[in-house]
Amino acid sequence: MIVWGGSDGTDLNTGGRYNAATDVWTPTSLGAGVPAGRAFPTAVWTGTRMIVWGGSAATALNTGARYDPSTDSWAATAIAGSASARYFHTAVWTGSVMIVWGGQDSFTVALDSGARYDPATDGWAPTSMSNAPSPRLNQAAVWSGSEMIVWGGADFGAGNFGLNTGGRYNPATNAWTQTSTGAGVPAARNHHVGVWTGSELIVWGGDGDVTGGRYTPATNSWVATPTGAGVPAARVEARAVWTGTEMIVWGGLGLTSALATGGRYSPAANTWAATSIGSNLPTPRFYHSAIWTGSAMIVWGGEAYTSTGARYCATTCASPNTYYLDADLDGYGVAGSSVSACSMPTGYSSLSTDCNDGDPNVNPGAFDPCNGTDRNCDGVGDTLLPGEVNFGTISRVAGAWRYTWPAVAGLKFDAIRGVYKGAVGTDPVEEYCLYNNTYATTWDDDNGPESGKFWWFLVRGANGCGNGTFGFRTVHVTPTTERLAKRGQTPFGKEV
Predict the structure, then answer these.
(1) pLDDT tens digits, 144-186
(2) Which residues, in sequence order, are CB contacts of 356 under 8 Å at separation 6+?
(3) How many angstroms separate the CA atoms of 88 and 108, rounded?
(4) Is 166 helix (H, G, I), strand (E, B) or coil?
(5) Domain boundaries, the chain
(6) CA–CA dist 394, 208 (Å, integer)
(7) N or C, where is the chain less crowded by C-beta within 10 Å?
(8) Could you tell me the fold of the domain covering 2-313?
(9) 3-state class of 485 per DSSP?
(10) Strands 212-216 and 201-204, bridge-based pairing
(11) What is the CA radius of gyration of the chain?
(12) What's the pTM value of the predicted model, to 2 decimals?
């Protein structure tokens, strides 16, 4: 989780990266390119960078920057062509561009404009204002996979302290479609929460309300959320996340004070369940941050000004799986660090057999050359292998083109086949790598050698056949008796 900016009474340009697996914070850079301090910026994650933009620092801002956690560095976003200065706006990431929309300017005038920012080109393009929703701030906004959906909010200057209208913006066509205000539409509100489920927008709360609604863009229709058992108390400026099966709402400002309560709403069951108020419960707060990790909701910061937070673990499926921390991202985790989740979180694996989670080249699927290191986690260091291993005699199964050799406990093999075209020492020999780094002890061929020629086989402890010094195929102009005699090789008699 990356947090940046905000206010503790003073506009801040500091932040930090929180690693939930290790429970460790790392501060973000204050070096070149870091944006000026501000309150109420928006932030989106692109997959590799966080983009922060806009906000307020005595006046509204139209500046921002891209933060790269891999290099702990900042790069400013372009100002030319950007959306006008604003705060209390929304921003979504489409997979290729950030769309900012709405909010209010330095004169507290609500806005109905926006722009698309492409970090690949550091360029801006305005969003259409034709058929756009009316000016507003404090709206909810989500990305559906093809459209940005905004709903609700307020236009205080026009006397609209809550709205129940919205719109769907398609960046591919630069066009707006109004959301329905017909049956089931929630009452007007602002300071509410909104999440995208994969097929619906769910909005809830705001303006002292415990009602909400589910909007389906495919049918442009609304269905109300229930207000019965388990529904959280009314609040504004709560935060919400989508787990894959539930919307979790937590915190916010109640009618008289900040709250440390919340609820989990299941659209499948159309029911609410309260979040825990047990041990490690965070202090009451609003204007905080909340994200979903894949297995837990992390809340942090907020008012009253605090630098504390907590992880809320919600098992939201009938049969959660165990996933293991994969710090080196090689596809294998370690048994000593695991989470229970309905889907695999980023940075985790379903496998727990890594023997070195700090080196992506060491794992059970890695190739293990003779380099003094156990790189495939089989517990056998190759420095422990004897210099010569007797594999016994290679035999052909009668009546078939199957060749077998004895297993040697704990060792993998390379298997190589060669063909002689004449007397040893006079004619060329072609060698082929049949197996590399395998426990196999047989080889099946389609047929025998060509008439007048014979095969020989070599089976040896794995040392790089196919990937190392031997190579996939080599041609020796002058084969030697030593090559036939060494390491348990057994040449066959001539097959005709």
Answers:
(1) 999 999 999 999 988 888 999 999 999 999 999 999 999 999 9
(2) 328, 362, 363, 377
(3) 10
(4) strand
(5) 2-313, 317-366, 383-491
(6) 83
(7) C
(8) Neuraminidase (2.120.10)
(9) helix
(10) antiparallel
(11) 32
(12) 0.67
